[in-house]
Amino acid sequence: MITQMISRIPVVYKYATGKKMNCLDFLRADHMRVELLFVQSKVVKDKKIKEKLIKKIVQNLNSHAQIEEEIFYPACEKISQLKPMILEAREEHHQFKILVDELDKLSIDDESLDAKLSVIIEDVMHHVRDEENDLFPKVGKAMSQNKLEKLGQQLQTRKVKEIEKAA
Ligand SMILES: [Fe+2]
Ligand SMILES: [Fe+2]
């Protein structure tokens, strides 16, 4: 997980400096935000901090899935060769969102909390690897630079709304 994060530091730097970002870079940076929370959740000892981290994980996973399903996936589905991958990605979202909802309802003292969180992390990391290694390169070839940047802007605007809603 750490190696994957380090390889994407340039993407995050571009994001942080507010340069125009295409949708693939934006989604990679958003994946990395969640992965950092995953790493923190594995090492944190304090229960109150862990509780807050889990809330953040739930919010970030839900908002990420939401913006992909609303904006990114529909744009990909218009390209017929990508349709099967998107159908599978939607099923993977469906699967991990069930566990994320369950995690959200668990007490911090529940004995199944760590096990559920571990399964979510495994599922999400598998999904992220499929998107970044398989789907994104195909999308990058199939869409124009202009389209990729337009989608990037739409995703950014929508993500800000999601963050405000959760605050
Ligand atoms: Fe996804
Ligand atoms: Fe994603």
Secondary-structure map with pairings?
Blueprint: H1 2-6, H2 9-16, H3 23-43, H4 47-77, H5 83-105, H6 113-142, H7 145-166
Helix pairs in contact: 3-4, 3-6, 3-7, 4-5, 4-7, 5-6
The structure holds fe (ii) ion (FE2) (2 copies).
Residues 68, 89, 93, 127, 131 line the site of one fe (ii) ion.
Please describe the structure with a list of short key phrases separated by commas or semicolons:
single chain; 167 residues; mainly alpha; Four Helix Bundle (Hemerythrin (Met), subunit A); 84% helix; binds fe (ii) ion
Description:
The chain has 167 residues and is mainly alpha-helical. Helix content is 84%, strand content 0%. The model has no long low-confidence stretch (mean pLDDT 91). The longest helix is centred in the middle third of the chain and has 31 residues, at 47-77. Helix 3 runs antiparallel to helix 4 and helix 4 (47-77) packs antiparallel against helix 7. The radius of gyration is 16 Å and the shape is globular. The protein contains 7 helices and no strands. It has a single domain (2-166), classed as Four Helix Bundle (Hemerythrin (Met), subunit A). The structure holds fe (ii) ion (FE2) (2 copies). One fe (ii) ion binds next to helix 3 and helix 4.
